[in-house]
Design a protein that fits this description.
The chain is an alpha+beta fold. The protein is about 25% helix and about 35% strand. The protein has 2 domains: about 230 residues, Rossmann fold, CATH 3.40.50.300; about 110 residues, OB fold (Dihydrolipoamide Acetyltransferase, E2P) (Beta Barrel), CATH 2.40.50.140. The relative contact order is 0.11. GO terms for molecular function: ATP binding.
Length: about 375
Amino acid sequence: MGQVENTALSLANVSKAYGRVRALENLSFNVAEGRFFVLFGPSSVGKTTTLRTIAGLVTPDRGRVEIFGKDWTNQPIAGRGVSMVFQSFALYPHLTVYQNFAYPLVEEKVAKSEIDRRVRETAAMLRLDKKIDRKPNTLSGGEQQRVALGRSLIRRPKILLLDEPLTNLDAKLRHDMRAELKRLHRQFGLTIVYATPDELEALSMGEEIAVMRDGAIVQIGSPDELYEAPRDLYVAGKIGSPHMNIIQGRLAADGAALETSIGALPFARRLQTAQAGEAALVGIRPNDIRFAGGGERGLSASIAMLEPLGDVTVVSVETGGQTLRMVLPESAAAGLQPGQPAAVVLDPAKFHIFRASSGQVIA
């Protein structure tokens, strides 16, 4: 990572156990100032513990937490310049929106006129200026979420931590709030660390995504990097919708093909680092499979299922006991019927080849 950008946050070999449960295991990553950084993975991989460690709510057993170059590992919560928004919003029900916003500033003994200015500015920015005298229970879920955000933003944090903040909202609101958060990120140049189990959220918002598994990071990259070059099967299966097709087999003697139940799949290049006969897997994205053109030899298959998704259709085909999914423009799938024979071509240049033993990619 280039050190030209200022590093806002750095975790080095952070581990945390609760009894026999290892919540974090040698977790290391850096977040550049102004970056929208996403921690992505299913529940109980350690996303919340990571955020709580950054905020100072959890002290790690080992490792180091630096914020803007200063060691905060064993320091108190106050003074970090970090603010966290929880999944549950945690608003004060008996206070108005105005009072909810003002509360952290009153605690910090900010002057009354300055509080008023910042509350009104924050309310306007979050489009809550008309709701400023209302109590949280009279607001919609999206408005409550914006109040929770505003209460964190009003403290002008250097780093904003968001723990699955959109989980409790319906699909339309989630979409709107994703756009809202991206707008706020740009407007303030905030450094955001955002935890989510939702792939669409991670890919549409994250400039950099850390894919987590069992309290550790498997791979960090931009959405494109994770999609184009997953380092192992776990990342390959988590990124990309519909999911990557995975075909099992054994490597041919010359290391130039995978022998599978649907026949030999020749590679674009010979593998140098693999053993003949080694169990391996080929992953291919649904977008990288197509029907054979005139005179082209393809794998003989039959159409199993059609899932129309508006402008595209997911077509499942069966060949040699294997179901492969492909994505076609709606117009190309219009005449297809289940049971119809088809010939499909897999693009060898787009194969992802993994070791069966470790799940690691074979370069």
